[in-house]
Amino acid sequence: MATQTVTMDSFRETIADNDIVLLDFWAEWCGPCRSFAPVFEKASEDHADVVFGKIDTEDQRELAGGFGITSIPTLAAFREGILVFSQPGALPAPALEQVITAVKGLDMDDVRKQIAEQQAAGDAQD
């Protein structure tokens, strides 16, 4: 599956309607973004079960701002609608493959339990 463009209009639907979504926050003027693009594209062809989205930070400033993007490229990974990974920097192909494998291998019941515990701890401090 090829990469797809993600915008404010398609973001929520993309995350909600797919089990695993990887997002590449990028800009055309960014050299490391241009270097990472073929790595991201190749991974999208190798993993048809994952949605690979690209968010142009120049065109989608509100979306990038909502994520607090201060450095590009930034890779974000969602599993079952939950942000499970976010890291700036152009990853080499083996590192991107590790991220994909790790996201696929997550025990989402455990992830949801950890989130609930963190929220409960935060509520207890209030």
Describe the structure.
The protein has 126 residues and is an alpha/beta fold. It is 49% helix and 22% strand. The protein has five helices and five strands. Strands 1-3-2-4-5 form a five-stranded mixed beta sheet. The protein is globular, with a radius of gyration of 15 Å. The relative contact order is 0.18.
Topology overview:
Blueprint: E1 4-5, H1 8-16, E2 20-26, H2 31-46, E3 51-56, H3 61-66, E4 74-79, E5 82-88, H4 93-105, H5 108-125
Parallel strand pairs: 1-3, 2-3
Antiparallel strand pairs: 2-4, 4-5
Number of helices: 5
Our estimate of the beta-strand percent is 15-25%
Alpha-beta content class: alpha/beta
SSE run: EHEHEHEEHH
Major sheet description? 5 strands, mixed
Question: Termini separation (Å)?
Answer: 45 Å
3D shape = globular
* Uncertain residue segments: none
Strand order of the largest sheet: 1-3-2-4-5
Q: Determine the fraction of residues in helical runs and give it as a percent range.
A: 40-55%
What is the total tally of β strands?
Answer: 5
Overall mean pLDDT score?
94
Give Rg in angstroms: 15 Å
Protein traits:
126 residues; alpha/beta; 5-stranded mixed sheet; 5 strands
